[in-house]
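Lay summary

Proteins are chains of building blocks that fold into shapes. Our project writes down both the chain and a compact code for its shape. Here are two examples, one after the other.
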Amino acid sequence: LEQALNLATGLNLKTNNPRAVLEEVLKLTGGQPFLTQKICRLLSGGDLISQGAESEAVENIIKNIVEYWDSDKQDSPVHFRTIYRRILDSKNSNKLRNICHQLFNNGKIPIDKTPEQLEFRYTGLVTRRGNYLEFFNPIYQRIFNENIIPEADGAPSIFIERSEQQESFKQVLDSLLNSQSLDNCPQIFLP
């Protein structure tokens, strides 16, 4: 807490008790520097925080971050999407996803020092506590849940994702090629 107190100076204009707000932030970020700064910045740009409402104010910011973690607005500069892509784009994606799902199911997993577990630690998603790996903080645990990280299925998800996009494109292209008139052609809008 003492090392992060300088972050509380930005909260002085929003609350009479910046230390209490910072304590709530640190409880949910686990002290992860980037995330702690991000939440403090969002709080300092938000509404006034009344005495006794520190926990609620922080939780409201966290709920918004968790719900919209993959949007440009919430993940700028990119942080959560980087962790996500490290897991899904890895050549060991299936093994990393298995590790993730073990964490979802058990809350922690024993350290086994395999190359995949070491790679998983490099994502920043977990930390070592004793002889176990656990989610670095409750925010990561809420974002990177079993609904976000797909179970391992034998094919790296980046290929699945691209394959679905290619299939969709093929359907549109087939429809265009088989149409006799432009009236029956699907509309294509490119960014």
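And here is the second example, written the same way.
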Amino acid sequence: GGSVSASGGAVMKLHRDDSSIADGNDIGQIEFTGADPSSVHSGAMIRGEAAGTWTADNENKPTELQFFTQDAGDGDAMSSPNMVIDKDGNVGIGTATPAHPTDILGTNATVGSGSSQLAVFSSSAYNTANTGGSIGFQGKKNSGGDYSENAWIGGLKENTTDGNDAGYLAFGTRTNGGAVAERMRIDSAGD
């Protein structure tokens, strides 16, 4: 193994020695490789790529980070990143061109298939009702920049029975000065 160390904080630089860096140029990359008896193979990679032309001043150096992993049966081909952090800080999972702070692209999931593009889990015990995955929606509430949760959606367990996974979907909102409270529920029967 190797290490980088320094008393003032370690820094490892990957430097492209080029006077003209343009959109799509590889700035540097870290590859994770392993060897079988006959050759070395890549398993994953992190790459910095120019996301526009770099200017001579220190103002304009658009760059994105690309994360690649090896899929079974693809040989050593890692042609498309699995995740990207673009020059604006947007994160794309399954897409190389995120247009929002977080974009997730995956195959279509059908109701009841057990697969989805995003899963939110709860670590609560199985025998605890009214627990499960949830998403909170927050916004700034004052000129001081404090945030508050304005609304909430939760997919929660209806019961405490071992092996019974009946669940409900709950929607909550907040009144001024109050806490987020449930306003609507769709139970496991669809009511």
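What can we say about the second shape? Residues 138 and 144 are 15 Å apart (CA to CA).
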